[in-house]
Design a protein that fits this description.
Layout lengths: L24 H17 L23 E4 L2 E4 L10 H11 L4 E3 L11 E4 L6 E6 L5 H11 L3 E5 L12 E3 L5 E3 L6 H10 L4 E2 L2 H5 L6 E2 L3 E5 L3 H9 L3 E5 L2 H4 L15
Parallel strand pairs: 2-3, 5-6, 8-9, 11-12
Antiparallel strand pairs: 1-2, 4-5, 7-8, 10-11
Protein name: Amidinotransferase
Organism: Paractinoplanes rishiriensis
C-alpha cells in the first residue's frame, strides 16, 4: 500500500475524476490508514511504499505491478501522468524479498487489469482490456508468469479497469458485473465461473467490486452495502471500510492494495 500523502485530483483520466471538487487530504489519509489497520487486524502483513511528490495516484498501489509465485510483471501506464509510478514499484520489488522482476514491453496497469485464481483450472489469470491495458500485454503476461491468461473485453468506460468490474472472492471463484463486459466475455465468464456472485450496476457504481478478499473476509467500501449483503449470502464475511475520498480518483479498496504472491 502507498499512503495518499500527495493525493489530489488535478487531472481527469477516468470518468470518476472531477477536478472541480477538492480532495480532503486529511480525511484521505485517515481512511487509508483505517484500511491498513483493518488488514493488519485480519492477520495480514502490509508493506508500505513511500509516496513520491508529483505522483498523486500512487495511492492506487494495485496498478504498479502484478505478481504470481515470486515473479513480478511490471506495469507500463497508459497515461503519462502516472508513468513514473512504474519505476517506484520496480524499486520496491528490488529491495523487498527475492522477486524475479520482468519489465513490460506493452501497456498494462498491473492488478488493475489482472486477477489471479490459483485453484481455478490449475491457476488462471483473468485479464481486462478495452481502456487501459493492451491485449498484447495479456500474451506477454502469460509468457512471463507461466499461467494461462483469459482476455476479457471491457465495454463501459465507467469500469475502465478489470478491478472495478470483477474480483476474486477466493482461490477459485469470482464476483463480477456482467454489463461491464462484452457479450462474448460474459459467455466466457459464465462458462468458467457458473457459481459466481453476480453484481448489478448499482453495486459496481458503488465500487463494490473493487474489493479485497482473503477467501473468508471480504473488505469493501461502506457505500457498497448491497454488495456486502451478496457476499454474506454467498458465505463470506463482509468487512466494510469507508473510502469516500479515494473514490474521487476512481478507486477503492482493491485499487489501494497490491497483493504480494511470493
Amino acid at each position: 500500500m502507498c499512503p495518499p500523502e500527495h493525493f489530489t485530483v488535478d487531472y481527469a483520466i477516468n470518468p470518476w475524476m472531477d477536478t472541480t471538487v477538492p480532495v480532503d487530504a486529511a480525511l484521505a489519509v485517515k481512511q487509508w490508514d483505517l484500511l491498513r489497520t483493518t488488514l493488519h487486524g485480519l492477520g495480514h502483513t502490509v508493506h508500505v511504499l513511500d509516496p513520491v511528490p508529483g505522483l498523486p495516484d500512487m495511492v492506487y498501489a494495485a496498478n504498479g505491478a502484478f505478481s504470481v509465485d515470486g515473479t513480478v510483471y511490471g506495469a507500463r501506464f497508459r497515461h503519462p501522468q502516472r508513468a513514473a509510478e512504474a519505476l517506484a514499484h520496480q524499486d520496491f520489488y528490488a529491495t523487498v524479498g527475492t522477486w524475479r522482476f520482468a519489465g513490460p514491453e506493452h501497456v498494462n496497469e498491473g492488478e488493475g487489469d489482472f486477477a489471479y485464481l490459483p485453484a481455478a483450472y490449475g491457476g488462471l489469470i483473468l485479464a481486462g482490456y478495452g481502456y487501459r491495458t493492451e491485449p498484447a500485454a495479456h500474451a506477454e503476461a502469460q509468457e512471463v508468469l507461466g499461467r494461462p491468461v483469459v482476455s476479457l473485453r471491457l465495454i463501459d468506460p465507467a469500469f475502465y479497469h478489470l478491478d472495478t468490474a470483477l474480483a476474486a472472492l477466493d482461490d477459485r471463484n469470482v464476483t463480477y458485473y456482467p454489463g461491464a463486459f462484452s457479450p462474448a466475455a460474459q459467455r466466457v465468464l459464465a462458462q468458467l465461473f457458473p457459481d459466481a456472485v453476480l453484481a448489478d450496476r448499482a453495486d459496481a457504481e458503488a465500487f463494490g467490486l473493487n474489493l479485497v478478499s482473503d477467501g473468508r473476509n471480504v473488505i469493501l467500501n461502506t457505500e457498497a452495502s448491497a454488495m456486502a449483503d451478496k457476499v454474506r449470502a454467498a458465505g463470506y464475511v463482509p468487512v466494510p471500510v469507508e473510502l469516500t475520498e479515494l473514490k474521487r480518483g476512481g478507486g477503492s479498496v482493491k485499487c489501494a492494495v497490491a497483493e504480494l504472491r511470493p
